[in-house]
Automatic annotation (TrEMBL):
Designated name of the protein: Cysteine synthase 2
Gene Ontology BP annotations: cysteine biosynthetic process
Family: Belongs to the cysteine synthase/cystathionine beta-synthase family.
Keyword Calcium among UniProt keywords: no
Entries under Pfam families matching the protein: PALP
Xref: InterPro entries: Cys_Synth/Cystath_Beta-Synth (IPR050214), TrpB-like_PALP (IPR001926), TrpB-like_PALP_sf (IPR036052)
Species annotation: Lodderomyces elongisporus (strain ATCC 11503 / CBS 2605 / JCM 1781 / NBRC 1676 / NRRL YB-4239)
Cofactor: pyridoxal 5'-phosphate
Keywords tagged on the record: Amino-acid biosynthesis, Cysteine biosynthesis, Pyridoxal phosphate, Signal, Transferase
Keyword Transferase among UniProt keywords: yes
Amino acid sequence: MGLRSTLSTTAYVLSFLILCNEVNKAYKKLSQQEKKLTPLPPKSRGIESRIGNTPLIEIKSLLRKTGCKIYAKLELSNPAGSSKDRVALAIIRAAETQGLIRPYHGDVIFEGTSGSTGISFAVLCNALGYTAHICLPDDTSPEKLLLLESLGAEVEKVKPASIIDPNQYVNAAKRGAEAINNDPNDPRRAIFANQFENDFNWRIHYTTTGPEILKQFSDDEKGVDVFISGSGTGGTIAGVGRALKEYNEDTKIILADPQGSGLANRINYGVLYDSVEKEGTRRRHQVDTLVEGIGLNRLTWNFSKAIPYIDEAVKVTDEQALKMARYICLNDGLFWGSSSAINCVAAVQTALKYGPGQTIVLVACDSGERHMSKFHAAAIKHGLCELEDIIQGTD
Ligand SMILES: Cc1ncc(COP(=O)(O)O)c(C=O)c1O
């Protein structure tokens, strides 16, 4: 009895000592990791100071399957959740410099958008002393409307219409700004941000996003072989494309285009066209796809600035984008929006076309949380597909 009790006490003491030793080892490992902290950004002032300098990460599961290093520029880590923060800040600063708007005078920034740009303007207007007035189609998803309203933006809903209709949401935004500026009794000033036609859009990507990518590859002798982006306004692909091409003309710039958009046809065959036009099957006034933020059936100023730098375009179906969104979510923990998924499909297709060893950079534009009710609700229905199954069926 006495012996058994002594043995169990000894066993208890021994397990306690082993546990202490393990805890001590874990603690030491943690302190070593803390010492290895990568350089942090310095202290800064205001949310606007945290725009840009976004991270670049490698998508591990895609390397395993393609033999190519595929990196994502995490534009979704900007403070208001997308690359549009860069554009909104650039447009505001340019308008201030030109004396078109003054902070804390009740001045208003109008934009016609159902997407990320409205959110960036809403956030930055709060931070910089302006009012954001966002015009959008009345079929915009309820979560986006609620988000804009929660951010304090003035939201004006209009009937979905084509760009030639004076009541289309972009035209409504233009009219709103003109009404304030033309009213002699209104002391406020207003601007129409006009992201599609605004020259500061592609320029901010040319002077920041592109050079950031080059800097992130400065320790990599080989550099970037391919850059892939969708086009909404065209600002990202124009600015980054030009910066990368000027650095190395061999870098391929590839447009990833969703179904229903005519831009891919414009690049590959010189004509802005999508097959739904021919078949008369268009269901919406805009691009007929579940993917939001990219794809268009008209030529904009910012896209025209991209055309000289784009080497080829890859068309991606909704089905492929849905499956890819699921694939990177379940394999890599990357819960991204629809345009990022399109870019990943185009990246894999490009990797397979040009073979292993390529270094490919794509843009991760926004988080999956902005695409829950339409895109991810549909993506959930797909199990974990093989990459080969996703790629099959590409035009
Ligand atoms: C989610 C998302 N991805 C990509 C883009 C494309 O960016 P750009 O307008 O620079 O072509 C946009 C543009 O609105 C977007 O909202």
